[in-house]
Design a protein that fits this description.
Shape: globular
Oligomer: single chain
Structural class: alpha/beta
Helix content: 25-40%
Radius of gyration: 20 Å
Length: about 325
């Protein structure tokens, strides 16, 4: 009988510190299989502006930096990268000019590709010698241009849309799209489209009752999907000074898990909603994300042949 320990993290959003922790923690936790959920790309470029006499200036997270040495510049770029942003050494007015001429998005994608390439090379360097299996995919916030990079990764498997075997008994299907969001992100589907995507993959499973469903968006109404409530202007709603929350997960994912009852559902997308719940026999997990602080949230799950025998949330 197969017993397999999974280590699952998600929503790193460009944080190099979190990715380094993920790569290092898998072997420490004695994980048999490592799974990186969607949303690998960061959300913003952070400019570092060239000044006179070889100096650089930058305002980042409430602090203004004036840099006069290469060592300081490198240290600042690492700090920015660890928070999930993309440091960019710019001439005065360069980013504004790029925005005006329509080339800023192209630069953004180039920086994403550079960061993700470095991550994949690090995974190859650290995990290949151990023979440690690694699976990854994009999320709703990741541009499609990154998909080919995952396909060509030197180590690991781009698992989206595929049936992959985690061991001799357990298969996994993966899908990184979310339901429709107010932000109209890169990769979204209607609930009907999500249902069709999951059902197509499920039809290729040999043992659906022992399968893992790795879908970026969590099931609706499970507390794994509670996010701050927004008004029509996308402003967070509060009552008596307390932020109001609402369920924003996928009804399609909920119905799929209740209908098919896989062993395990792995989810992310809603950073604030970390937890473990059940939908019938299916254990559903969202480890949450604190990527901007450099803290790595994850989940360790042990699969026996026909059950989840252990599960816990971990943080480091």
């Amino acid at each position: 009988m197969a017993r397999t320990r999974l280590y699952f993290v998600t929503d790193l959003h460009g944080s190099s510190k979190c990715f380094r922790k993920f790569i290092n923690a898998g072997p420490i936790y004695k994980a048999d299989v490592m799974i990186l959920g969607g949303d690998v790309a960061g959300k913003a470029i952070q400019s570092i502006i060239r000044g006179p006499n070889g100096s650089w200036t930058c305002s980042f997270i409430g602090t203004t930096y004036t840099i006069t040495s290469d060592a300081e510049l490198t240290e600042l770029e690492r700090l920015i990268s660890d928070h999930g942003y993309y440091p960019y050494r710019a001439e005065p007015g360069e980013l504004e000019a790029r925005e005006a001429d329509g080339t800023l998005d192209q630069l953004f994608v180039e920086l994403m590709v550079e960061r993700l390439t470095g991550w994949l090379n690090l995974a190859d360097e650290r995990l290949r010698p151990l023979g440690k299996p690694l699976y990854f995919m994009l999320g709703n916030d990741d541009p499609l241009e990154l998909a080919g990079l995952l396909d060509r990764a030197p180590w690991g498997t781009h698992d989206e849309g595929k049936v992959v075997w985690l061991d001799d008994e357990h298969e996994m299907i993966s899908w990184g799209y979310s339901n429709i969001t107010p932000w109209h992100s890169h990769r979204e589907q209607t609930e009907e489209q999500l249902t069709a995507s999951m059902n197509e993959m499920a039809g290729r499973l040999s043992h659906p009752e022992r399968a893992v469903l790795n879908v970026h968006v969590p099931p609706y109404g499970t507390q794994l999907d509670e996010a701050p409530k927004l008004d029509e202007n996308l402003r967070v709603q509060a009552l008596l000074g307390q932020v109001q929350f609402a369920a924003v997960g996928s009804t399609a994912v909920r119905e799929f898990e209740l209908g098919h009852q896989p062993l395990l559902g792995l989810h992310g997308h809603i950073h604030e909603a970390s937890g473990i719940r059940r939908l019938g026999r299916t254990v559903v997990i969202n480890p949450g994300s604190d990527y901007s602080t450099g803290a790595l949230n994850g989940a360790l799950i042990t699969l026996d042949k026909d059950k989840v025998s252990a599960h816990q949330l971990v943080r480091g």
